[in-house]
Amino acid sequence: MCAGALALAACSRTAQPVHFFAEGRPAKLSDWQVVYADGRNLALNEGVVPYDLNTPLFSDYAHKLRTIWLPHGTSAKYNADGSFDFPVGTIISKTFYYPLPKGAARDSKAVARTYDQSTEFGDKTEGERGLKLANVHLVETRILVHREGGWEALPYVWNAAQTEAVLARTGDAMPLELVSDDGAKQAFTYVVPNQNQCAGCHVVDLKTKQIAPIGTKARHLNREYPYVSGSENQLLHLTKLGYLTGLADPASAPKNADWRDAAQPLDARARAYLDINCGHCHNAKGPANTTALDLTIFAAANRYLGVCKPPVAAGRGTGDHFFDIVPGNPQDSILPYRMRSSESGVMMPEQGRTTTHVEGVALIEEWISVLRGTCDTAT
Amino acid sequence: MGKVAIAVLCALAAGCGGGGTAPQALSADDAAYQQKLQEQFLDAKPGSIIEIPAGRHALDRVLTLRANGVTIRGAGSDKSILSFKNEISGPEGMLVYASDFTIEHLAIEDSKGDGLKVNDGENVTIRDVRVEWTGGPKTTNGAYGIYPVKSKNVLIEDSASIGASDAGIYVGQSQNVIVRRNHAEKNVAGIEIENTINADVYENTATGNTGGILVFNMPNLAQPGQSTRVFNNKSFENNLANFAAKGAAVASVPAGSGVVVNSNPKVEIFDNDIAGNHTANLIISSYFSTNYYNTAGVDPKYDPYPRAIFVYGNRFKGGGDSPDGLELKTLKTAMFGINGHFPDVLWDGYVDTKSLVNGMPPPAERICVQNGDAEVLNADGPNKYKNPKVDKASFQCELPKLAAVELPHS
User: Fold this and answer.
1) pLDDT digits (tens, 9 = 90+) for B185-222
2) Cα-only R_g, chain A
3) Among candidates A22, A43, A29, A20, which has minimal Cα distance to A167?
4) CB-defined contacts A:B, below 8 A
5) How far apart are CA A251 and CA A228, in angstroms?
6) What is the C-alpha R_g of chain B?
7) Does A71 touch chain B (CB under 8 A)?
């Protein structure tokens, strides 16, 4: 539905369905017709379904609008542990954006550092709610498309006018400034990955070398989402839409904790945080299997989770500490040291951020502080 | 969490928040070259040759390669220089997840993390590549210079690593490896072979490092290493103060170590020139001598003993006269006087007592030193250096020689 004459030109695009490009690299995000700026909203096309994760990856305090679209009549096959088995033609998008700082006029770099999402949702339209352009600073949208040869990742960077995002295969870097509610400012460089860096996280199995989605797993998706039609469990909603088959009952599906929900057990929150932030590399088949450190939700809470584990190739990333996790002693543990750092060569994850996730570090430190055991050197 | 708490945490955490200063931007020329080079790396396919022209190219982002069969070629390791001094996204200089990979005739400088990392490659050739941290040895330098890991059929030749804060040339968890005619200087470890099966290390020069050439096995990894030959190398005056961060694998290496074997079996060390290394020209030791052993953190299946070590025909000279660390210093002075020196071979004395037959390890697992008049100091580490002794007779034995490593592509 088009509200004003000014928006007409943009609105006319909404008549076009989502376009799956079986090959090639479309130069503009709008070529895909998955999400697009329509003058008022970053709108979601028909059939494009938004989703959230129980606990997300930290990306320099960016908020993320994730969507999934499947060709008509196709569906993904449910899988309890891994990413769902998606048909060729599936398009996943992830838009990285920030709410604008409260009361501040838009400029090229000031963005809010907040977990508050109340101002950003777009108007009610025919599709699901997108983002209110007046209230957000769009940075980039990443497309993950499933083609005959496998998944491909394409990063698009939004222009200053916030009307279009253009392909940036070699990535980008832009100076931004995080503004907290109390007005504190923190300058940082937002780094858009290049295509090979996308694979740095999305190749979760080093032998197959195949790019794969990370978030579209049962344990991350098993939560409610405020759809236009009302709040509903995401797995159930996707099943009802015909996008997902093979799930008998969402109640039986695995579910990671919400890392910010203090009502949930500390251990579950910490493990969910490590799972999504570290597990794509630190798993038995991933690029960081060279370190013997497994930070997925499946890892037993022993040396392979880092408990009393001497580092293998941390180099100066040890911060002068001897073990990844010293139970009861976060200040002597390597893991939070590397999370606390924002220095390339020390920090973990190695990419995807240039700032420190203060609240994430606090969670992991709290978790380590209540772990029991000693790194006893007796032989 | 309240704002005050966040502010306090931020103040406590070094580097919290990425600092307020933007990294130095690349010049327009460098930025344009970087974009072009990144596109070449993205578009590379089997058979591609990426030429790096002569000149110093400033880059601010890791170069990642994922296509097999690619050659990256410069005009010489003193001519084609990729400088990562202002790197904002890395941490490596170059990161390779590919097989049938050749890189030659170029330099990688000042990356925040490892210089060149090749993960899970097969048939890898690294030739005339120099990785250097140009500000000299610093703890803040990247960890590894040239770092193939989990790779198979690896040739590293005529290359150099200078200034790595861990190991200069570091071969980890690999199989079938030749490291020859390289130069390692001012690293903590010059050359390190770790958890690797079948490695030949020859005709290299390691000098001015903390430790010259290391053969290590680390715990908890999928592949325990074995069968390394170290021969015809020059490892001299590796007396640089250890500048690794504590807790790093090589932080326990004493300054003044010529060649070090730690917990790795079937190592043959022969025909090397090893001289002037102040702690000892050759150290044979167990993981128990590092500070990392603990029952919770180390897989009980891990074998921490150096078994079947064969030392012969090396030319040892000087060294052992000024060991690093209070315990070794005290030991040296007590046994050999202020002006004396350790014998050429320093063994920490850890043995697998369960394996002993009549007080000796089985013949196939012994440490054999048949090296002219070179003696061995058993430092008696298990008893906190209480009864150290110089010995030669106990090490008079022979082991079957290891086969030469053959690579399909060398």
Assistant:
1) 999 999 999 999 999 999 999 999 999 999 999 999 99
2) 21
3) A29
4) 241
5) 23
6) 22
7) no
The answer for residues whose C-beta is within 8 angstroms of residue B354's C-beta and 6 or more apart is none
Strand partners, B262: B216, B285
Residues 199-238 of B with CB under 8 A from A: 218-222
How many Cα atoms sit within 13 Å of B14 on the Cβ side?
7
Strand A230-233 and strand B55-58: the pairing is unpaired
**Residue A101 preceded by cis peptide, ω within 30:** no
Q: Count CB neighbours of B32 within 10 A.
A: 11
Å between B345 CA and nearest CA of chain A:
25
- B88 contacts in A (CB within 8 Å)? 173, 189, 191, 344, 354
A341 has a chain B CB within 8 A of its CB: yes
Among A8-12, A98-102, A227-231, B109-113, which is the least confidently predicted range? A8-12
Out of B21, B35, B221, name the one closest to residue A170 (CB).
Answer: B35
ipTM of the complex as predicted: 0.92
Distance CA A317, CA A102 (A): 37
Q: Determine the residue type at B115.
A: G
- Closest by alpha carbon to B194, among B285, B263, B125? B263
Q: Do B298 and A303 touch (CB under 8 A)?
A: yes
Q: What is the pTM assigned to this prediction?
A: 0.93
pLDDT class of A181 with cuts at 50, 70, 90: very high
Nearest-angstrom CA–CA distance, A108 and B7: 25
Q: Which helix (H) or strand (E) holds A291?
A: none
**Which of B35, B119, B166 is opposite residue A315, by nearest beta carbon?**
B166
**Mean pLDDT (whole number) for B88-115:** 97
Domain boundaries along the sequence of chain A: 5-245, 261-370
